[in-house]
Each structure stands twice: as structure tokens, then as C-alpha cells.
Amino acid sequence: MRASDAERERIAEALREAVAEGRLTMEEFEERLEAAYKARTHGELEPLVRDLPAPGGGAAVSLVKSPGAAAAPAAAADWASRIGGGPVSGPVAIGVMGGFQRKGTWTVPRRFTAFAFWGGGEIDLREARFEDGEVVIRCIAIMGGMQVTVPPDLDVHVGGVGIMGGFDDKASGAGTPGSPRVRVTGFAFWGGVGVDRKATKAERRRLREERREERRLAREERRGELE
Q1: What's the pLDDT band for 91 if we cut at 50, 70, 90?
Q2: Could you tell me the sign of the dihedral formed by the alpha carbons of 218, 62, 181, 121, in that order?
Q3: Band of pLDDT at residue 112, cut at 50, 70 and 90
């Protein structure tokens, strides 16, 4: 059966709970979260949580009903605050025998072109704002390389061409409700363009803090039992 956005978000919430409880490492969490947002069917989602209990101690995570189902409206509201408004960054980035970076809280224009010749570039959208609900990023790498990093919950469609090089499209997939749509196009000639999904730094920090708090509470509970 085809999976819905709400079902993908339920699985993502279960994974966040699992890493906060120490059941998953950060590496396992990031790998499964990426797979969850790229999943198209229940058959692709279910193995991601098959070895995990449901939040609250249930027997298993369910695609039908889960406490995480209420997360979608919050995610949509968060995306709405990052679309439109504020100064827009320049529409072009160039790295010739050198490099460029676009990262942090920059604003992605509707049409953004990145060019690298005998050099490299880094485009990070995890904390970015977006001029519009749909943007196009055109990457051209000639005898060079370019890396595009997107958050796990962003709607991304990759359609570039590699000629004696590579244009990675593994990150293509739907995002959470309300997310901007980002189209990554262009070509790589004797070079490469990679597009990867990774959790934001804030998300990783939050999960680490939750895990530390869970461990602290567990230690206090054990000490109380011994006393």
C-alpha cells in the first residue's frame, strides 16, 4: 500500500523517540530517517521500526495510529515561517580554481545557479529560508565537485545529468506537509554533484540533550531503587 505523508511523519517521530531513549545511534537514526522520508510504500516504512517498541512502551509502532500523528501541523507551521520575507541572497555562486559556500540562514532565491570549474562548492539548505514555495537550484560542475545538503523533511527532486562524471539523485523524495519544493538540475562534466539528506545541527543537538536527560533520569531511578 502507498504510504502517506502523515504515515512517514509517524515513523519519523518514532525514530526520534528511539534515538532519544538510546535505542538507536545517531548514525542509525540519520540513515533510517532519510529512508523514511524517501519511502513510497508501507513495505518500505515498516522495516525501519520493526525492531523498536512504540513510544510509551507499546508492542510496536503502528502506521494506522500513533501519538506522532499530531506532528504534521507543527512541521507545516515551521516551514511557513521559512518561506518568503527577508533579503534574498544572490542568484549566482561561482568557484573557479577555488570554492564557495552557501550555508546557515541564507535565503534561497527562486532561481539559483552554482558553477564550479576546477573547484568546489557547498550548498546547505538545512537552516536556509526560501524566497518562494518552489525554487530551482542549477548546479554546473566542470572538472570540479559540488555538494548539496538538504534536511530530511524537505521536498526534493533531483534531475541533473552526469557526463564522464556523476549527478547523484538518491535524495529525491517528498517532504513533510508545507515544505518548499526544491528542484536540483544541471550537469557534471568530469566532475560530480552530490545531494544528501542530513538532520540539522539543532535537531542533532536536541536529540543528544534528550538522550542525556533520559540517561540521567534512568540513573536516578536506579539509585532510588537501590536505596
Answers
A1: very high
A2: positive
A3: very high
User: Scanning the structure block, which residue is given the C-alpha cell 533531483?
Assistant: 158
Using CA atoms, how far apart are residues 52 and 110, in angstroms rounded to an integer?
Answer: 41
What b/e sequence results for 166-193 when a residue is b if at least 16 CB atoms lie within 10 Å of its CB, and e otherwise?
Answer: ebbbebbbbbbbbbbbbbbbbbbeebbb
**Residues near 212 by beta carbon (within 8 Å), at least 6 away in sequence:** none
Q: How far apart are CA 201 and CA 38, in angstroms?
A: 21
**Long-range pairs, 54-59, Cβ under 8 A, ≥24:** 54/14, 55/13, 55/14, 55/17
Report pLDDT for 68: 41
Q: Looking at residues 55-65, what average pLDDT do you find?
A: 49
Return d(Cα 92, Cα 116) in angstroms, integer: 11
Amino acid at 48: L
- Residue 134 is which amino acid? E
Residue 76 has pLDDT above 70, yes or no: no
Other Cβ atoms within 10 Å of 84 Cβ, number: 14
Q: What share of the chain is helix, strand, coil (3-state, %, to 5)?
A: 35, 30, 35
Domain spans of the chain, in order of start:
5-80, 92-197
Amino acid, res. 39: A
